[in-house]
Amino acid sequence: MLNEKQKLDTLMVLGIELNRIHDLDILLERVLTRARQFVNADAGSIYIREGSRLNFAHSQNATLQRRLPEGEKLIYSTFSVPVDQKSIAGYAAATGKMLSIPDVYQLAPTKSYHFDKKFDEASGYVTRSMLTIPLMSSKKDVLGILQIINAQDQENRIQAFTRTDEKVMLHFAGIASVALERAQMTRAMILRMIRMAEMRDPKETGAHVNRVAGFSLEIYEQWAKRRGIDRKEIDKTRDMLHMGAMLHDVGKVATSDLILKKPSPLSFEEYEIMKRHTIHGARLFSNLQSDYDEAAAIVALNHHEKWDGSGYPGHVDPMTGKPLTGHEPPSGGQMPGKKGEEIPIFGRIVAIADVFDALSSKRSYKEPWDEARSIEIISQGAGSHFDPELVEIFLNQLAFIRAIQARYTEKSN
Predict the structure, then answer these.
(1) Average pLDDT of 331-360?
(2) Do the Cβ atoms of 145 and 89 come closer than 8 Å?
C-alpha cells in the first residue's frame, strides 16, 4: 500500500511510464493496474466511449484471481452501457463528474443511477466502495471511464475511498487521459492503414487484425512465462507484438486488385506475386524508427513461413527481394523457406493466429468453419506448418481465444 509521499513520487513519473506504451489495449491494462495500486483497490474496470455508448474494455479483480489455479487468468464477458444517467459509469460519462460511493448497495433510491448486481450474483463477488472517474480529452470530451472498486485498508478490509484518494485519482486520471488520447490516435492511424489494405483486400478488416493481435498476445505471454522471461520484458514485448500483429498483411496494398479480388484460384505466376506482400510489408517498416517498426517488419516478413521450411519468402533482403548471401535457391528451383527456429518467434506466433482467424471467419469464397474443424486444422499443422509448442499453448488458451472473438466481431470493426 503506497503512502502519501510514494503516491506523489509515483505521480511524477507516471506520465513517463504510460507514454512509453504505444498500444491501446496494453495501456488500458497498465492504467488500471497502477490506479488500483494508488488506492489499494481490490478490483476495477475501464470503459472506452464510442459515440453514445461505453464499451467494457478491461477489468481486474484480485479476489476472483486468487480463486483460480496458479497461471490462469480471469475471463470477462464483453458488453456496453449507454451514456446516460441510469448506470454509475453512464452517469459519470454523461455529466463528466466523478462519483465516489461508499457502498453501492446503500445507494439512495432518489439517485438517477443504480448499481447492477448481475456481476456480483454471477461471480459471488461483493462490490462495496466504488470510485468512478471520467477520463477527459484535451478538448474536455469524455474518452472513457475509470472505475475502481473496494478500497482496502492495511489489513485488506474493505473501506470507503477517502477524500485524499479522490484528489489523488483526479490527478491520476488527468495523466492517464493524456496517454489514452495519444494511444487512441496511434490505434486510429493503424486502423487507417488497415482500412487502406481493406480497400484492396476485403479480408483485412479491423476486427480481423484485432483478433489476430489478441490471439498473438495470449500465445506469446504463455510462451514467455515458460521461459522465465522477466515481467517487464514480457509487457514491453506484448506492446510491440500487438501493434506488429495488427499490421501483418499491410503489404497487400502493393498487390494488384486483379490478384487480390480474383474469384477463381490463382495461377502459379499470380501466387508468386501474391507471396511478395510479405516483402512489401517488411519494406514499409525498413526505415526503423523504433522497436515497433522492427516488430511490424518481422511479423510482415515471416508470418507465412512454415515450421518445416515449406513457407515463404525465406531468407531474403526486404529492400531488394533477393536471397541473402548463402541462401540462394538451387538453379531453377524454388526459394526455400525459413525452417524451425530460424523463423522469428513473432512470425511463428502470428502464423497460428492468422490461420485460425481466417478459418473461423466468413470470406467471400467460404462460410466460417466451426471451431472444432478450425482447431483440427491447427492441430494437424503442428510440426509441419506450425511450431508444435505454440500449437500446444494455443489449444490451452482456447477460452481466451473465444473471449477475444466475442469482443472483436465484424460489427465492432
Answers:
(1) 92
(2) yes
- Is the separation of the CB atoms in 133 and 46 below 8 Å? no
Q: Is 413 helix (H, G, I), strand (E, B) or coil?
A: coil
Cell of 113: 443511477
68 phi and psi angles, rounded to 5 deg: -90, 155
Report the alpha-carbon distance of residue 290 to residue 233 in Å, rounded.
Answer: 16
List the one residue out of 133, 40, 56 whose CA is nearest residue 95: 133
201-412 topology per CATH: Hypothetical protein af1432 (1.10.3210)
Instruction: Give pLDDT tens digits for 271-322.
Output: 999 999 999 999 999 877 778 899 999 999 999 999 999 999 999 999 988 8
176 pLDDT tier (thresholds 50, 70, 90): very high
For residue 313, whether the previous peptide bond is cis, meaning omega lies within 30 degrees of 0, is yes
266-302 in b/e burial notation, b at 16+ Cβ within 10 A? eeeeeeeebbbbbbbbbbbbeeeeeebbbbbbbbbbb
Q: Is-contact 346 292, C-beta < 8 A?
A: no
Query: What are the structural domain ranges in the chain?
Result: 4-184, 201-412
Task: Tell me how far apart the alpha carbons of residues 288 and 295 are, in angstroms, rounded to a whole number.
Answer: 10
For residues 207 and 409, the answer to whether their CB atoms sit within 8 Å is yes
More confidently predicted of 287 and 186: 186
262 is catalytic: no
**338 DSSP β-pair partners:** none
C-alpha cell at 156: 485488506
Angle at 395 between CA 366 and CA 29, to 5 degrees: 95
Nearest partner of 374 among 389, 360, 364, judged by Cα: 360
Extract the C-alpha cell encoding 413.
470493426
Tell me the sheet residues that pair with 335.
none
Please tell me the total number of residues recorded for the chain in this structure. 413
| Per-residue model confidence as pLDDT tens digits over 232-286 | 899 999 999 999 999 999 998 888 888 887 878 889 999 999 999 999 999 999 8
Spatial CA neighbour of 147 closest among 133, 159, 163? 133
With 0-12 / 13-18 / 19 or more C-beta atoms within 10 angstroms meaning exposed / middle / buried, residue 333 is: exposed
Q: Pick the catalytic residue: 97, 117, 139, 252?
A: 252
Is 4-184 CATH 2.60.40.10? Answer: no
| Equal CATH topology for 4-184 and 201-412 | no
* pLDDT higher than threshold 90 for residue 57: yes
